[in-house]
């Protein structure tokens, strides 16, 4: 897989030498721009790397069937020269699964892990439903796929402008790339990976997240002894966009501790 496109930001005090970079991994069909509510806050404290997954933003589409394992390797290979011994990782939704794989596969490199709106796992029954849904998307336009989903991605706090932003961000992705990315988390099994994770972990879930809500977050917490949990009130799946006022300070506190 070709190297992935990414941006780096660092507005932190230059006299602070010991700074662990934070890698941000976006969700299905979005791109690095979907972290615009985090980058200014985070980059004042430590270097921030925001990556575009295959076929999203500035990254080329993959010519092969994607897996979470392959995406994680491509992400790590693409940004490896941007950090030394340690890297912190934050991922949302599909990006959360990629983050789990990174933290398991490269456990000696990942210092802290933040999972936002990340499912604990998919049952075999749910996988059948998700595969059928994805297959049905092949007969729809991207607009017909994306528009109905946007309202459900948010809870009670998002403005109409924020909902429109996310829809437009995802609509920039081709349907081929969207479908290829979409099948990767369905076929991924995170259960054998959780015991391999050594990173201190913060799990964040929107109270109203219909994909990976508080119950899913608590299941992940049970897999990772010592992990911390933050439930965002009135917030849906796109928690980073909907509730940065609460999420950002808590994430920064965790990452700097």
Map the helices and strands.
Blueprint: E1 6-9, E2 22-25, H1 39-42, E3 48-51, H2 68-79, E4 87-92, H3 94-105, E5 110-116, H4 124-137, H5 142-153, H6 160-171, H7 175-186, E6 200-206, H8 214-223, E7 228-232, H9 239-242, H10 244-256
Parallel strand pairs: 2-3, 2-4, 4-5, 5-6, 6-7
Antiparallel strand pairs: 1-3
- Can you list the strand order of the major beta sheet? 1-3-2-4-5-6-7
CATH homologous superfamily identity: Alpha/Beta hydrolase fold, catalytic domain
Low-confidence sequence ranges: none
Topology order in helix (H) and strand (E) letters: EEHEHEHEHHHHEHEHH
At the fold tier of CATH, the topology name is: Rossmann fold
Biggest sheet layout: 7 strands, mixed
Distance between the termini: 35 Å
Category by helix and strand content: alpha/beta
Any idea of the CATH class?
A: Alpha Beta
Kindly give the count of domains: 1
CATH architecture: 3-Layer(aba) Sandwich
Strand content: 5-15%
Tally of DSSP helical segments = 10
Cα-atom Rg, whole angstroms?
A: 17 Å
Task: Calculate the mean pLDDT score and round it.
Answer: 97
Number of strands: 7
| Structural shape | globular
Helix content: 40-55%
Describe this structure in words.
The protein is of the alpha/beta class and 257 residues long. It has one domain (6-256): Alpha/Beta hydrolase fold, catalytic domain (Rossmann fold), CATH 3.40.50.1820. Helix content is 41%, strand content 14%. The chain has ten helices and seven strands. The protein has helices at residues 39-42, 68-79, 94-105, 124-137, 142-153, 160-171, 175-186, 214-223, 239-242, 244-256; strands spanning 6-9, 22-25, 48-51, 87-92, 110-116, 200-206, 228-232. A seven-stranded mixed sheet has the order 1-3-2-4-5-6-7, sandwiched between helices. The longest helix has 14 residues, at 124-137. The chain is globular, with a radius of gyration of 17 Å. The N and C termini lie far apart (35 Å).
């Amino acid at each position: 897989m070709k190297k992935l496109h990414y941006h780096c930001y660092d507005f932190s005090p230059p006299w602070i030498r010991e700074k662990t970079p934070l890698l941000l991994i976006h969700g299905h069909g979005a791109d690095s721009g979907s972290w615009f509510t985090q980058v200014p806050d985070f980059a004042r404290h430590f270097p921030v790397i925001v990556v575009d997954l295959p076929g999203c933003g500035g990254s080329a589409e993959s010519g092969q069937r994607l897996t979470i394992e392959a995406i994680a390797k491509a992400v790590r290979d693409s940004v490896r020269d941007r950090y030394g011994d340690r890297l912190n990782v934050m991922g949302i939704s599909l990006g959360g699964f990629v983050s789990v794989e990174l933290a398991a596969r490269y456990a000696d490199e990942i210092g802290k892990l933040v999972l936002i709106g990340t499912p604990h796992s998919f049952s075999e029954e749910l996988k059948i439903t998700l595969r059928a849904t994805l297959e049905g998307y092949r007969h729809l336009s991207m607009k017909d796929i994306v528009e109905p989903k946007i309202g459900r991605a948010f809870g009670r706090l998002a403005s109409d402008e924020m909902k429109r932003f996310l829809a437009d961000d995802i609509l920039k992705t081709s349907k081929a790339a969207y479908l290829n990315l979409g099948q990767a988390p369905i076929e991924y099994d995170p259960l054998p990976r959780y015991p391999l994770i050594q990173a201190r972990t913060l799990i964040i879930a929107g109270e109203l997240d219909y994909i990976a809500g508080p119950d899913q977050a608590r299941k992940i917490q049970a897999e990772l002894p010592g992990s911390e949990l933050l439930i965002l009130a009135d917030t849906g799946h796109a928690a980073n966009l909907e509730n940065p006022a609460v999420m950002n300070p808590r994430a920064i506190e965790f990452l700097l501790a």
